[in-house]
Fold:
Amino acid sequence: LGGQKKYAALQMIGRGSFGYVVLARDNTTGEAVAVKVIRRGDVTKYVEGEITNHSQLRHPHVIQFREVFLTPEDVCIVMEYATGGTLFAYLQRAGRLHEPVARWFFQQLVVGVDYVHRRGVVNRDIKLENTLLQVVPQLPLPLVKICDFGYSKADFGSAAKSKVGTLTYMAPEVLVNRDADATYDGKMADVWSCGVMLFVMVAGCFPFGSFNDRDGSVAPPTEVLRVLERMLRVDYALPPGVALSPECADLLRRMLVPDPSRRIRIGEILQHPWFLCNLPPHA
Ligand code: ADP
Ligand code: MG
Ligand code: MG
Structure:
């Protein structure tokens, strides 16, 4: 990779907003790694944050950061390789998930996000495409690994200002006044995004519709406004034929709360009855 000998690029595994990700071999150990390659010319202030924040994290549900190196053209972030692809692709194959399966993934996501917050970092881009899966032979389902700290921010009680993230998963307080100077609590914004994730897993569609927003600016303001109004009215519905357990429906109601001060906190989610109740296997 980039003329250095330590890593040999094997194949392209992902394309994102700021570059691409390749599967590579660490020639010193033979291990597979993922390398996120960002053109130096495209490096924004966020790349610095991505590296400083991600490199501090060490947790079973966060993709392990390994090192960063520079080539004349690129900044390369070396990390643990997740063999199971993204939760996005998994859900595309499955359509929607039975609650026991959704609970398996969602519990790990919440444990990971809670850890990240405890380390004083907010991710601000929690979504299916940034939730990777690690296949473990002994386990019936893959493990969740949070990736992409490209929009993350060090958060020691300080309010966030930049309205970053992906529109479809963006909390209403982030979406509202997107061009203004208003601040918001990054942790509570992450909780909202987790709520959108849970909804998509069990419903197979997005609660308030989705945007085509790869560069964050495609959606016309009128469309954003329409979706924002639905969020503020808590106007989401399950598609015909989908029924949820009362516990799952209740957890969603507590997460997709427009007022962030009344939204369930990340540390409270795992105490919710949905994690304790017996679910029929095909719920
Ligand atoms: P961007 O900030 O451009 O969105 P990401 O870090 O999300 O970049 O990576 C883009 C895509 O590359 C991911 O959605 C995923 O498909 C793939 N990818 C990223 N990191 C890994 C990894 N460690 N293991 C496997 N696939 C990965
Ligand atoms: Mg990403
Ligand atoms: Mg990113």
User: Anything to note?
Assistant: The pocket of magnesium ion (ligand 2) is lined by residues 16, 129-130, 148 (CB under 6 Å).
